[in-house]
Write a structure and sequence with these properties.
five-stranded antiparallel beta sheet; Alpha-Beta Plaits; binds manganese (II) ion; Aminopeptidase; 2 domains; 412 residues; binds (2S)-amino(hydroxy)ethanoic acid; alpha+beta; 34% helix; 22% strand; 11 helices; 16 strands
């Protein structure tokens, strides 16, 4: 008799992931931005899967899909399990979706084993974790935590569509946002399972790991304005080349982050105008994403970047302006829930390893509502935000067994 798991939970997870992966806004690659038609289709599909799993389920005013098992005492503080079903552009299929699917598979497994939780179990598919479409930050999970900033409704996407209008077109309700705030007394904790999106678990040959803290993030938009000119006639020492200035600034960003411990900083978007081969670039708009496990270090790094970019701009005769639009604090996870996850990891014969999260997650917002913890799942090569993102059915099964074990202990 081998004590090898039968992988049935893992297979169920992978099947649901495939189901959801078909909902994309771009043919041939997975792009599912908040409130897009693909997000609506994925939300409807998640609603159906939740209901088939025996959960009462609905889509809330901001587009989150919320499933619930009442348990034997519906008025007891509930346990929340969740993650997000929105994606970046040309995304992998596990980022976010895995945590939602695992919550549903665990709810299914409890019912299949005839286990009635002592408290309600809520499974949530948030919709705006990636913050790719609107200048918001974890808006749908912050709504649960009662920290939704109504000004976010006026944020606009690259096509100038206001979040409020996209929400109405999605079938949501801008007037229903305040009612989404949960009473902290009614929640005992939030658990989120997510791919690691990094190389550590693979390097340690571990299928899962426990998140100790989530790094803080500063995101900003920068604008550099020089002067367009003829690429053939303007001498090099007489140019005000916006793109050459930004090239120097990107070097400043790289140096500021690589000379500090555990910090990262990225220029992910750069738009050049007018963008012609024989015209000296007049303007460049670019983004900054700066992160650290320590908020003071992050703020100092961003300040250094701004100071050095201003000096470079002055030297080059271009203007430089930068507007931070998102701040997310470094967030430690709940020690009690981490201990529950560690016990559950041990119970499947895996050595518990703690690791910090360089990526942001809905757990940052949910930690404002109730004790929160995260379980990471190994992903191949640590690759994420990339269609090559992948996990094995064995690791999906291990994560499902860990989560099921932890949930059984918490809701016993
Ligand atoms: O960017 C992040 O950290 C997350 O994947 N949204
Ligand atoms: Mn994610
Ligand atoms: Mn992501």
């Amino acid at each position: 008799m081998t004590n090898q798991p039968d992988l049935s939970l893992g297979r169920r997870v992978m099947a649901m992931i495939e189901d959801l992966a078909q909902h994309t806004d771009e043919y041939g690659r997975l792009t599912r931005l908040y409130l897009s038609p693909a997000h609506r289709a994925a939300a409807d599909s998640t609603l159906e899967i939740m209901r088939k799993a025996g959960l009462s389920a609905h889509i809330d005013a901001l587009g989150s899909v919320v499933g619930r098992l009442d348990g034997s005492n519906p008025s007891a503080p509930a346990l929340l399990i969740g993650s997000h079903i929105d994606s970046v552009v040309d995304a992998g299929r596990y980022d976010g979706n895995l945590g939602v699917v695992l919550g549903i598979v665990v709810a299914e497994a409890l019912k299949a084993e005839g286990i009635v939780p002592s408290c309600p179990l809520e499974i949530v598919a948030f919709g705006d974790e990636e913050n790719v479409r609107f200048p918001t930050n974890l808006s749908t999970s912050y709504a649960f935590a009662g920290r939704y900033d109504e000004a976010w409704l006026d944020g606009r996407d690259a096509d100038g569509i206001a979040l409020r209008d996209a929400l109405i077109a999605f079938g949501g309700d801008p007037l229903g946002v305040a009612a989404l705030a949960r009473d902290p007394a009614r929640y005992r904790g939030y658990l989120e399972v997510h791919i690691e999106q990094g190389p550590q678990l693979e390097a340690h040959d571990l299928p899962v790991g426990i998140v100790s803290a989530i790094n803080g993030i500063t995101r900003a938009r920068a604008h550099v304005i020089g002067e367009a000119g003829h690429a053939g006639t303007v001498p090099m020492n007489m140019r005000r080349d916006a793109l050459a200035a930004v090239a120097e600034m990107i070097g400043i960003v790289e140096r500021a982050s690589s000379t500090r411990t555990d910090t990262v900083a990225t220029v992910g978007v750069a738009q050049v105008q007018p963008g012609a081969i024989n015209v000296i670039p007049a303007r460049v708009d670019f983004t900054l994403d700066a992160r650290s496990p320590d908020d003071a270090v992050r703020h100092a790094m961003v300040q250094d970047i701004v100071t050095e970019c201003e000096a470079a701009a002055k030297r080059r005769g271009v203007t430089f302006a930068i507007e931070p639009f998102m701040e997310s604090p470094a967030t430690p996870m709940s020690k009690d829930l981490m201990a529950q996850l560690e016990e559950a990891v041990r119970s499947i014969g895996v050595k518990p390893m703690q690791l910090a999260s360089g990526a942001g997650h809905d757990a940052v917002a949910m930690a404002n509502l109730c004790p929160s913890a995260m379980l990471f799942v190994r992903c191949k090569g640590g690759i994420s935000h990339n269609p090559a993102e992948s996990i094995t059915v064995e690791d999906a099964d291990a994560a499902a067994r860990v989560l099921l074990t932890a949930v059984k202990r918490i809701v016993a």
